[in-house]
Each structure stands twice: as C-alpha cells, then as structure tokens.
C-alpha cells in the first residue's frame, strides 16, 4: 500500500494512520471491553458457543458475525475476551480500509478521515461489539478505495480483488447493506465517461465478491424458507414498521437510544449535538465537492472527493427514507465514506490561507475536533450508563431463575427472553414462530416440560399466556421493576446437562 518512509524527521501519512488505528483500538478496550453483551450480540455469540444452546436465528440475520466470533467462542465464553478480539479486528480493519486511499491521496487528510470516523461514539461503542455495522462501514471504504485506485491506474493486479474480498465479507455479514454499496459504485462507473469503457474489469471483482458472500444466506434461504423470496419477504416483514420517509428519526436517535423503535417524536427530541454535527458535516462535504469541481483540472483526480461523497450519500438513503425506525449505528457506513471529503475540506481550509493566519485556522480546526471528541465521549458515557442498567436487569433475572431451580438444560419463553437465556445458558423460544424461524409449537413445549426446566419471562403489560396455568410466579420483590417470571413445575425426570 505504498512505501512507508521518513523524509527527515517528518512523520509520514502511513504512520499517522497507524497511530489513529492503534488509538482507536486502545480507546475501545479502555472504555467498552467490560460492557455486557447486548440482545443481538447474545444471539450471534450463542450460535457457536459449546456451552450454550444456539438462540433462535431469524430471517433478517446472516451468519457472518457468528462465524467471526466462532474462534473465541470455541475457546472461551468470556465477553471481555470477545470484545478485545473485536477491538483488535476493527482497529486493523480501520487501518487497512483507509490505507488504500493513500495511493490516491498521499497526505494527512486520510489519517484525519480515519480519526473523524473513529472518534464517533457509535464507532467506539460498536467497534468491539459483535454487531456488523463498523466492519460493514470499513468494508465499504476499502471497496470504494480499491475501485478508485483501479480506475485511476494506481493499483497492482491484486488490489481490486482485495476490494472484492471486502464486499464478500460485507455480504456475508449483512447482505442488505452490500446492495446499495454495489449499486452506488456500479452507477458511478457507468456514469463516468472513461470508466464505463472498463466497466467489466472494474466491477467484476466486486460483483464476484458479493456473489461469494451471498452463498450461505441463499443456501439457508432455500433450506429453511423454501426459497430466496420467501426469506426476503419474511425479513422485510420482521423489520417493517409501515412508515417511510422519516429522516428525522435518525437525527432524533443521534445520541441514543440504541434502537428508536417506535420512534415517537414527542418523546424523542432532536438533539443539538446531532444538528451541529450533521450541519457541519454537510457543509464540509459540500465544500470538498465544490473545491474538487472548481479547482481540480479536467483529467485530474476530482474523483478522489466525488466518489466517496456519492457512495456515502447513497448508503445513507435507505436508512433515511425507507426504514421506519432508527438506530445510530445504521449510518456508520455513510459516515465512514463521508469522513474522507470532510477531512479533505478541513485540510483545504488550513492550506487556503498563508502566513500567520494558517496557524490560527489550524488551531481553530484542532479546537473544533477536540470539542467534537469531547461531545462524543460524553454521549458514549450516557449511552453506556443507560444500557448498563438494562443489561444489569437481564443479569438479575438470570440469577433469580437460577435460585428458582431454572438451570441448564432449560427453556425460556417470552418475547424478551433471549438475552436472559444467554446469561442463564438456556434456550429461548417463542411459541408459533413464523415458518423457517426455528418454529416452536405447544407440542414442543409439552415435550420440553417433560425433560427440562421451563419458565416464561414477561414484561409489564404482557398478558400471561394460557399455557402457563398452574405455573408458579416468582415474587415481584426478587425481580427488577417491570419484569415477571413464571416457572413451570419441575419435570419428573429431568435430563442431565
């Protein structure tokens, strides 16, 4: 990815980028490593954990994240070890993804872009999480960079296939997010007068990567859902909310909650921090595009700015216009690419002035970045504090279940039983699931009652299921506020673990 060298005592762009990547990993370990696993993480982590049953895996999910965690889960069920492993992986991915751009932009703006992206609270929080969004974001940066290098003739023969591997990984992890990425890059190649002549050569590695990455999802769709379209319909039905064109939801969720569903405007005000960051980011992207169009000569490298700006904008559109709920992590792929023109604009602001004013502008940029980082750390602390309370409740419910003799092998029922089941090392099921989503019927429940410990976990407002008649209610004083647990009579001859 270019030669790393020193010119006198000057630190090279590669060194700056490596420093940002190391700092990104270190901050994750220091701030997030001991944070308990979340709901989706528990489902992913359970799939290859020999100490636990694999929790229900529904249509929208893909196998990439469970496979990524499999080596650690085979060795240890420690969530801290898993987070350190993922922090190291995301740190390496950050370096690899942005290092490609040094081939077309060999200056400090690339490391600055990595810093802008890596300093977001969402990046720090989800980098060591068993969630797909940070890795999807960095795969998009890498794939876009390799395409640009190939189009501009600055790539060895193997580099486009590294981009194809990144797309394969993204598709394996989250197929739905690979579609707009490929669409944006494909349209960019077709629209470019010089690039369209090489459309097959430029796009073949990326399309091949997507095809390879999609194979496990497609095979599982055929085996469990009787075809691709039934699984797609099932996934869309699971994720749908009957709302569209609600971009303000993403802005309202900028500083939390982790999932704004339903996103009620009266209860979720627009945060000033989100307004400031979005406005500043948009202004800087517009400035970078303007500079590229007005000041880069024809035949130059204006695409270095235009391609990430275009691709980042396209990646944001599905979550701004088509998804009727919000989560801050959804926009990470867009942020990762838009950070490149943002960093180029900041560099332009500093270099556009000369003499003593340059130091003044540079100081202003540094202060703005420091303020940005301070706000992000503050939001991260607030998010982790609120989430910790919820995850502590899961642990408390799991401990109560153990005191009431609900121990492995065991089955928990209820819509919100999955994270509790992971901690209790039980299976989690829902009666009458949709076809393909690991169905569990009343007949299955009767079989489980004869062999295992069974309990149902309910939240306030949920009706007691009819099948729990005669089950023992755990005293509410033992449980977190808003939780109920009903324990089935012990089996006459329970199975041994």
Describe the structure in your own words:
- The structure is a single chain.
- The protein has helices spanning 13-32, 39-46, 64-75, 79-99, 108-118, 121-126, 133-151, 159-173, 175-191, 199-225, 228-239, 247-252, 272-295, 303-322, 332-351, 356-403, 418-424, 442-451; strands spanning 410-413, 427-429, 453-459, 472-473, 483-487.
- The protein is mainly α.
- The chain has a 5-stranded mixed beta sheet with strand order 2-1-3-5-4, sandwiched between helices.
- Helix 17 (418-424) links the parallel strand 1 (410-413) and strand 2.
- Helix 10 crosses helix 11 (228-239) and helix 16 (356-403) packs across helix 17.
- The radius of gyration is 25 Å and the shape is globular.
- Residues 1-9 have low confidence and may be disordered.
Strand content: under 5%
Tally of contiguous helical segments? 18
User: Strand order across the biggest sheet?
Assistant: 2-1-3-5-4
Q: Give a count of the beta strands, DSSP E runs of length 2 or more.
A: 5
Q: Please describe the biggest sheet, giving its number of strands, its sense, and whether it closes into a barrel.
A: 5 strands, mixed
Question: What global shape is seen?
Answer: globular
- The separation of the N and C termini measures 52 Å
Give the averaged pLDDT, no decimals.
93
Query: Over the alpha carbons, how many angstroms does the gyration radius reach?
Result: 25 Å
Helix content: 55-70%
Secondary-structure element series: HHHHHHHHHHHHHHHHEHEHEEE
Class computed from helices, strands and strand pairing: mainly alpha
Multimerization status: single chain
- Parts with pLDDT < 50 across at least 5 consecutive residues: 1-9
């Amino acid at each position: 990815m270019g030669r790393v060298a020193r010119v006198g005592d000057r630190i090279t762009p590669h060194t700056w980028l490596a420093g940002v990547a190391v700092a990104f990993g270190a901050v994750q370990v220091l701030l997030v490593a001991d944070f308990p696993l979340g709901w989706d993480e528990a489902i992913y982590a359970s799939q290859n954990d020999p100490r636990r049953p694999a929790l229900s895996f529904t249509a929208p999910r893909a196998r990439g994240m469970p496979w990524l965690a499999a080596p650690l889960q085979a060795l240890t069920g420690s969530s801290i070890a898993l987070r350190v492993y993922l922090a190291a992986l995301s740190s390496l991915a950050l370096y690899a993804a942005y290092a490609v751009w040094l081939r077309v932009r060999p200056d400090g703006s690339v490391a600055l872009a990595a810093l802008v992206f890596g300093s977001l609270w969402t990046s720090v929080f989800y980098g060591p999480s068993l969630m797909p969004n940070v890795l999807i974001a960095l795969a998009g940066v890498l794939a876009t960079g390799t395409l640009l290098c190939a189009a501009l003739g600055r790539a060895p023969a193997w580099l486009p296939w590294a981009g194809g591997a990144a797309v394969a990984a993204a598709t394996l992890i989250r197929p739905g997010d690979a579609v707009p990425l490929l669409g944006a890059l494909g349209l960019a190649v077709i629209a470019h007068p010089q690039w369209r002549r090489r459309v097959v050569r430029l796009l073949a590695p990326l399309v091949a990567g997507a095809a390879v990455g999609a194979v496990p999802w497609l095979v599982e769709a055929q085996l469990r859902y009787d075809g691709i379209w039934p699984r797609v319909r099932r996934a869309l039905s699971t994720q749908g909310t009957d709302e569209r064109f609600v971009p303000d939801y993403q802005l309202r969720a900028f500083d939390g909650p982790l999932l704004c569903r339903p996103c009620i405007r009266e209860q979720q005000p627009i945060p000033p921090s989100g307004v400031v960051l979005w406005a500043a980011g948009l202004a800087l992207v517009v400035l970078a595009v303007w500079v590229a169009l007005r000041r880069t000569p024809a035949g130059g490298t204006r695409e270095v700015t235009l391609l990430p700006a275009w691709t980042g904008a396209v990646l944001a559109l599905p979550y701004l216009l088509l998804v009727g709920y919000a989560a801050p992590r959804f926009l990470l792929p867009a942020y990762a690419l838009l950070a490149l023109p943002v960093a180029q604009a900041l560099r332009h602001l500093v270099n556009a002035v000369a003499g003593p004013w340059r130091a003044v502008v540079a100081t202003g940029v540094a202060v703005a970045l420091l303020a940005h980082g301070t706000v992000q750390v503050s939001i991260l602390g607030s998010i982790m504090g609120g989430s910790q309370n919820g995850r502590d409740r899961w642990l408390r419910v799991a401990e109560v279940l153990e005191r009431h003799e609900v121990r492995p092998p065991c089955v928990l029922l209820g819509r919100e039983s999955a994270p509790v089941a992971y901690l209790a090392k039980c299976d989690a099921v829902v009666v009458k699931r949709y076809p393909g989503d690991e169905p569990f019927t009343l007949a299955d429940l009767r079989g489980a009652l004869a062999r295992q410990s069974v309990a149902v976990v309910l939240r306030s407002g949920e009706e007691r299921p009819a099948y729990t008649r005669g089950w023992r209610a755990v005293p509410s004083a033992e449980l977190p506020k808003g939780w109920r647990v009903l324990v089935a009579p012990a089996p006459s001859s329970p199975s041994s673990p």
